[in-house]
Design a protein that fits this description.
mainly alpha; two-stranded antiparallel ribbon; 5% strand
Amino acid sequence: MMSHHRPFLSPRGVDTTYAAEPPPGDTPDYDHPARNGVCLLFVVIPLLMAIATIMVILRLYTRKFIVRNLGADDCKHIKFQKEVKAKS
């Protein structure tokens, strides 16, 4: 059994090893690993966040100016949006 385990330095500076052998016929490339779909996430996540923010704004606008009944449940949306913006 060939050993493809290669120690590396994790972000915390701890020496670790890889969890398992690669599948038969697969040659691991530890120096240049595949990044499947990572760039797509940089587009999808901000797009969905923008859509969600627009939907919350439309809901609050409707409740305040059309229904004229801004309730406690609407304040939860405002609080959640502030928490999300504070984390980013």
